[in-house]
Amino acid sequence: MTMIAIPKETSDKETRVAMIPAIAKKLVHAGAEVVVESGLGAACGFADDEYREAGVRVSEDCKTLLAEADIVLRIHRPTAEEVALLKQGALHVSYLDPFNEKKTVAAFQKQQVTAISVEMIPRSTRAQKLDALSSQASLAGYVMVMQAANRLNRILPMMMTPAGTIKPARVFILGAGVAGLQAIATAKRLGARVTAFDTRAVVAEEVESLGAKFLKIDLGETGQTVDGYAQELTPEQLETQKQAQAAEIAQSDVVITTAQVFGRKPPVLVTRAVLSQMQPGSVVVDMAAETGGNVEGSVAGQETVIDGVIVIGSGNWAGQVSRDASAMYASNLFNLIDEFWSEEKKQIELDLEDDILSGCVITHAGSIVNETIKNHYA
Questions:
Q1: What domains sit in the chain, N to C, each tagged with a CATH number?
Q2: How many CA atoms, within 13 angstroms, populate the side-chain half-sphere of residue 250?
Q3: Contacts of 237 (CB under 8 A, 6+ apart)
Q4: Phi and psi angles of residue 75, each rounded to the nearest 5 degrees, phi first
């Protein structure tokens, strides 16, 4: 019987879990033995007994759990010491940041473990139900708007009162990917006046369909990757964007930046000079703070005040709604396993030529099999 193990996350700042009882029950019904480390779900309100009621075994011994597992599911990448505990031929699924974590990838190679990086799952129609990056980004978009609303010194919607009419707050969102679109939708639902910009002109229709205004900036030729990500701008295009959006930022009450370049440092889109033009008490939320930041002066994991403007770089945005985030992530993982599960053999069967797996499997049988990562390391 295939053993699927889910250890606790080692970061004390992580409140999400990789598996919830309801989804674990589906894995048990599929014929797998599911084992979780004791206390796995405590941070988001799932007791050990709830897992037991779902048919899951609860273990106190994390090292044994890792050593015996055929499949390990988690959120964050493992340490080299944890990888060394895994048995040869095991499958490990988590966020890996393979572009920057060469040592972790090397540890998987040495241990001959098949490693799947969830952030490398293709953004295709078939892979949509497996796409953890998108599911978590959608929640992040919601959370960023709520954080901004809580810190702003005024309300978001227009309000008519006997004392007069309060104008709606102006919200400017940079980037109209999954997180940006959810941020737009949330800000609109709260009654704000929303403007958005993205280097991909093709998303203008999506922005406008949500009731927001699309800021038009002529950057010349731009585009997106096959996975739908915005292509990196040239230095000249980036400077044009900064200058053109400066006026919009200056008159906004809330600015939310969501521009991230996968595997590389994100572009700085909001400078201190532009921040100084904003009204004191305005709020800027930098989604990319943990990887370098879109906002000059933002600090990963912290809230700072720059020239009277509150700059939020909290990070782990989806983790702030951990119960829903955990349910979505666990569902993504279940769908991944279910996609390649053999009902007859009661085990996962991986075809590395499959269009989903060729994109997200990083190592297998002691080799780097992902062409993108292989070329990146060359």
A1: 3-120+321-367 (3.40.50.720), 137-316 (3.40.50.720)
A2: 10
A3: 199, 219, 220, 222
A4: -95, -60
Residue 373 has pLDDT above 90, yes or no: yes
The active-site residue, picked from 38, 112, 128, 358, is 128
Q: Which of 102, 79, 106 is nearest to 366 (CA)?
A: 106
Angstrom CA distances, 184 to 140, 145, 310, stand at 12, 8, 20
Catalytic annotation on 123? yes
Q: Is 52 a catalytic residue?
A: no
Cβ neighbours, 10 Å, residue 285:
30
Catalytic residue list contains 193: no
- Show Cβ contacts of residue 273 under 8 Å, excluding neighbours closer than 6 positions: none
What's the confidence (pLDDT) of residue 234?
A: 76
Catalytic residue among 94, 117, 134, 237: 134
Residues 138, 182 contacting (CB under 8 angstroms): yes
Stretch 309-324: mean pLDDT: 96
Q: What was the pLDDT predicted at 162?
A: 93
- Catalytic residue list contains 51: no
The pLDDT assigned to 200 comes to 82
Q: What is the DSSP letter of 20?
A: -
Lowest-confidence segment of 177-186, 227-236, 241-250 by average pLDDT: 227-236
Q: How far from chain centre, in Å, is Cα 6?
A: 20
Are 238 and 231 a contacting pair, CB within 8 Å?
A: no
Exactly one of 48, 59, 70, 131 is catalytic; name it: 131
Mean pLDDT, all residues of the chain: 93
Q: 179-203, pLDDT tens digit by residue?
A: 999 999 999 999 999 999 998 888 9
pLDDT of 282-304, one tens digit each? 999 999 999 999 999 999 999 99
**What mean pLDDT do residues 137-164 have?**
97
Q: How confident is the model at residue 221 (pLDDT cuts 50, 70, 90)?
A: low
- Give strand ranges (E) for the chain: 3-6, 33-37, 57-59, 71-73, 91-94, 114-117, 159-161, 164-166, 170-174, 193-197, 213-214, 254-257, 283-286, 303-306, 309-312, 341-342, 347-348, 361-364, 367-368
Residue 229 annotated in active site = yes
Whole-structure pTM value: 0.92
Rounded CA gap, 23 and 231, in Å? 36
**Pick from 232, 237, 176, 236: nearest CA to 202:** 176
